[in-house]
């Protein structure tokens, strides 16, 4: 597989996206490290190459196109808009040195708030069509359903937001759920703190930026949380059952509809899922055989907060997914400092497709 | 060709390493002037002493330029990606003990666990519009530890020295550093989190997995290891 072949294949995808109404967009390779760090957190450093510019400060070799495309759209785009792009992205592979540290991506993004499910379906259907010749297995999910379930839990707002914040960190999420359900013991340090008449008595001098008022606020929050009744077993079961939903779309929909009885807050999100299935079918996708996993995208796709999808080669489990995508309204909201900008999109890796073609000989 | 043994070039780490080998019948000495980094090995034939900064020893081992090296586990784990495929620990030498720990201001009475740190970081970000900063020079180890612990809303800031002072100087809210007694932390009004340390480190003898060996070097190495009881 040569780079030129990957580039040609990427160009073919871009042309197809242009036919679907996308405008080509070009992005810098050197991106502001500050912006990416603020968005993705410290973990991005272990995945991206960082370099120094004496005048501009820390720069990152673009680890993906999402951020620069959103920035370009916010700068001079008008809604609705569709974009396509192709080019190298750079990823450090500390844990998997056999994986490529640079490769080409071809992408398609839709910024259109009029009918979110229709835009979701449009992206997925284009991908399915373009990838049809490679015999890939698609998987879909919807982070919006899990977050709707959390928002509907009968517990304090503080606990709900803590769970929402950790949707993408399954281990911490599990630990929080167990603690709120009273299944793990309260740490001794916490008990001692809550029993202390004046916890600040032995605090010593205040140093650093975090203020005494912030500490007091958290003490109040901890006392309130200690008085909060445990999350009921039924509520924990609901979340656990939901996370295990993994079947074809029609069965998943049925299953989720059943769950609405115990968790009415699910309804709007499940309605959206149902509408997306209809839109997918209308775009020619066979929804009856399409897999839906409620926990899909939880470990690898932070900031995807609605529909998520991926296409993988079942015969090559060693390869990462060939294409991935989803809805990232939360990311645009943070980048736009509160301005909402509904967005959905995805990327394809031509190099992996070429490797699959070679396999077939 | 000789077998190359890398040893820290100065300070207590060097002296203790010399003592450790001496107890096992191998005499390491510095030769030449005080400032010259040259050394000699007695008690076993064909071994060359290479005096290096402790922080360079992991990389020299990984590149195969030295066959054996003494350095801290912390430096090996921080410097080398997939360290266990590049070097093999042969013996813990029983000195140079230090723990890599996370420390926060002692005044943070509400923060004792990683869970607390995560909650404090979330509130801090909301209140200050910036991620909670943790000063350290052990970026990879700390990042991996916090990822495993599910801590979000923090960022690491680089600190190559006097890390304990960064909180007071308002360049960080918390720190991650090596400590043996915790005295410097206490003097700077910091406390260690009530969790397992990020890493327990001590001076360790490592073997390079990539250094090339001919027949003679193989024999020399076997002889040296037998001599020191490994």
UniProtKB/TrEMBL annotation, chain B:
GO terms for cellular component: cytoplasm. Residues 54-228 form the ATP phosphoribosyltransferase catalytic domain. Pfam families: HisG. Its EC number is 2.4.2.17. The gene is hisG. Keywords: Amino-acid biosynthesis, Glycosyltransferase, Histidine biosynthesis, Transferase. Pathway: Amino-acid biosynthesis; L-histidine biosynthesis; L-histidine from 5-phospho-alpha-D-ribose 1-diphosphate: step 1/9. It catalyses: 1-(5-phospho-beta-D-ribosyl)-ATP + diphosphate = 5-phospho-alpha-D-ribose 1-diphosphate + ATP. PANTHER family: ATP PHOSPHORIBOSYLTRANSFERASE, ATP PHOSPHORIBOSYLTRANSFERASE ATP-PRTASE. GO terms for molecular function: ATP phosphoribosyltransferase activity. Catalyzes the condensation of ATP and 5-phosphoribose 1-diphosphate to form N'-(5'-phosphoribosyl)-ATP (PR-ATP). Has a crucial role in the pathway because the rate of histidine biosynthesis seems to be controlled primarily by regulation of HisG enzymatic activity. GO terms for biological process: L-histidine biosynthetic process. It comes from the Bacteria. InterPro entries: ATP_PRibTrfase_cat (IPR013820), ATP_PRibTrfase_HisG (IPR001348). This is ATP phosphoribosyltransferase. It is an enzyme of class 2 (transferase). The keyword rRNA processing does not apply.
